[in-house]
Specification:
Two copies of one chain form a homodimer. Chain A contains eleven helices and 13 strands. With about 325 residues, chain A is α/β, with parallel strands linked by helices.
Amino acid sequence: MRYFITGAAGFIGSNLADQLLADGHEVVGYDNLSSGQEKFMEPARASAKFTFVRGDILDVPALTAAMKGADFVFHLAANADVRFGTEHPSRDLEQNTIGTFRVLDAARVNGIKKFAFSSTGSVYGEPNVFPTPENAPFPVQTSLYAAAKCAGEGLISAFCEGFGMQAWIFRFVSILGERYSHGHVIDFYKRLRADPSSLHILGDGKQRKSYLYVEDCVAAILVATTRSEAKVNIFNLGTDEYVEVNDSVGYITDMLGISPKRTYSGGERGWVGDSPFILLDCSRVRALGWKPKLTIREGIVNTLRYLQDNPWLLDART
Amino acid sequence: MRYFITGAAGFIGSNLADQLLADGHEVVGYDNLSSGQEKFMEPARASAKFTFVRGDILDVPALTAAMKGADFVFHLAANADVRFGTEHPSRDLEQNTIGTFRVLDAARVNGIKKFAFSSTGSVYGEPNVFPTPENAPFPVQTSLYAAAKCAGEGLISAFCEGFGMQAWIFRFVSILGERYSHGHVIDFYKRLRADPSSLHILGDGKQRKSYLYVEDCVAAILVATTRSEAKVNIFNLGTDEYVEVNDSVGYITDMLGISPKRTYSGGERGWVGDSPFILLDCSRVRALGWKPKLTIREGIVNTLRYLQDNPWLLDART
């Protein structure tokens, strides 16, 4: 199979590329390197089956040309800044909705029938049902990031109906692991390196969150795309556990051997659109034979170790 | 109150403008006249409290300037061609998603906190629950039209959360009545005028559909926007009944006094993304004291009479 991956220089995209190459497939990686890292693609670039094309998903001619000949599109390129949506209201629309449309339409034009998409568990807004299943009540969006991802999901489903395509949509919890560059572990680690004596935490620290390790995430993606064959296949991807933000802080400070004074911005939410409780019902993907190997604590510890081993990432533009 | 209505020269927009003016409000109508009709605004234009601005919702400077000073935005401008989405895949995205974003952002920039939106019952895709309530299971989109409207809903909800706005989102069934210019009644009537001896029907004619009369629709919109005060207020708008397409054809041919031979394209759906059964649970808006005055049959009969009285509309670009 020849796979086309948008966001191939990103966290999940580069890990997915490595796995597909290890499985013997051809991979064309596409990335504008706005937040992706050349270094993340070094293992892939060592393979003769990997081609990298630097380009933007909004550049339709370049995108359409690069995708030519692919059998399967993994659309992972996105604006991943969940927290700062309200500072630039149109960015999520442009990168996560219009961008998704461009990738989808390029697939249609190229006659590519299989399409996978990295959505987010945030599309459930603030759900009433925990763990939250894929068919939870029709949610009300609470962040521009999730609204734009949800819009992408809808466009993909409509393309499947309208143009005979087949899609796999993944609603991720936050992902941890090698090449992680966005989120609370790197934020806390950066700030604790600068000042190990204190740590300011957004919200009340009691927000309950789920995380999934990137190797487990990639394994789930490959299980789902090879073992489910509906027209539109929607999967939650997460673990069956959650931790409080305060727990995460404890794992990190224990590992660093420090005891910073914790202060809190207060409130149930860390930022506008933050969901105070994320726990997804992942029985649908588990029924296909997948289960995660790492616990959340192991994931956080491994992620911090990775960041300690790769200090260049702390200063990189991501 | 000073209301700003996009799509003010359209079917629902012009009826809403008339009612708001009758209630003593000021109305600024905004429309690019691509499918709206100057004639529809004649009653409104007789009022000193009505201002019309010809402009496109994608023209941000014109839109933002026209909206200045309004207290409340009714965003009704849209591509209303539900059936032909797959013939021009980007049109729904541009007009119904990006267009909605532009109107929403112009409201934000102008400091307007109240925003109402014409969504569609089609956002439920092909639901499993009938009558379908607003909190039905998270749907899978089946048409570009509904996907783009659903995307608009999500953006609006996220703006409410992010920027302290308040929204009313209406999921309409098909609307009938004065100034109706799109849908099965006009399609059948045009074809029966050309050839009263036969009528070709898309699908098997057994599609079950709900319809609401435009006066009832406008009344429901005004009840909902004045009597519900949540951050995001989502309402189904329809009747508690449905008819088969074959029933509709019978009402029309009875009224015309003809008995055309009926042929069928076959299949449960009239077109890609057509939902074989639409029946919305409207108890949420009924609980506010609203109920429809006309039955579906009365609505169809009145609509046909309106078309007979306004033959210019049969040839108008709508």
